[in-house]
Amino acid sequence: MPAVHCFKPAVLLAATLLLGGCSTLAPMATWELLKLGSNAAMASQTPKPINTVHHGDAPVKDVCVEYNRDMPLDELVPALQAELKTQGVDSRVYDVGSGQLACAYWLRYAGSIEWAVPPLGQEHRAYLSAAALSLHRADGRLLSSSAYAGDSGLGRWASTRKKIAPVVKALITGFET
What we know:
Blueprint: H1 3-18, H2 27-44, E1 49-54, E2 62-66, H3 76-86, E3 90-94, E4 105-116, E5 125-137, E6 142-149, H4 160-173
């Protein structure tokens, strides 16, 4: 998305406030314009995978996700599964130690969250600040790994799925694009 699109809401707000005469901007309309501007700024930032290692094995079409009870962000596993599906990979989720015989490939993940008040928000909210994914054969041999390192700007408020999407793609394809 070109950077020009991110500034349209701010320009519209400034132009409206500078109008003279009888024009007014209702408080709710102002609030909506501010939210639109911050959402546009967040949407323009694209997370990048880092530290990708891929051993060039045949493409994986089915993977088991080892559920990490130490990762307190409920939306991470659904985001992982949705992005795996986007890459053409079916997935199932198992607790640690279960399903060992049913799975030729395992995806393991770890991550951390931070808490802060989002722009124009009033309450603290958790967001994904870092994540590491690794893909293993059933015997434990590493096939690939990739990671997400958090963003300190407005990008930290992007959805978990948007943050994890390029990491899953790098994990499956080996390309950090």
